[in-house]
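Example record used in the benchmark description.
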Amino acid sequence: MLSAAAASLNVAAIILIIFWPTAELTVTIVRRMILRAPLGKPDRLHIHQIVRRGIEIVTSGRKVRPLANALTTLCILPAVIVSPLLGARLTDNRDAALVALALCFAAYGVSYVLLLRFLSQYRARRAASNLILSQFRQALRRLRIELR
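Model output (structure tokens):
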């Protein structure tokens, strides 16, 4: 509607200014459509929740949640700030704003996928090490029983 009202308006720059909520909403809708989950159903797969969970996993778990929340803000803040700054700077250059918008969506998508992979690999490694440790403990118990 804005672009119809003002033909000289740079829509890509406006989207850059509101990039973060736009990207979050787009990824959430696509993810829920792929998973066939209800669009209104809450989940914990927003990028800020993934970053926070990653910080909790790498540190001491949920015991450090207040610190993890603060660190999540620090981690995400540069990404949240860059696109509005680009949008404000590129209001006069539609082509550059389109390129910047494409790069922001690409960076968001790549970082989202990499964060999910990191967490799943970390969880898989932790689960495997727990399985190995439990099997090792069981073997030690059997060995003690057999030695008696």
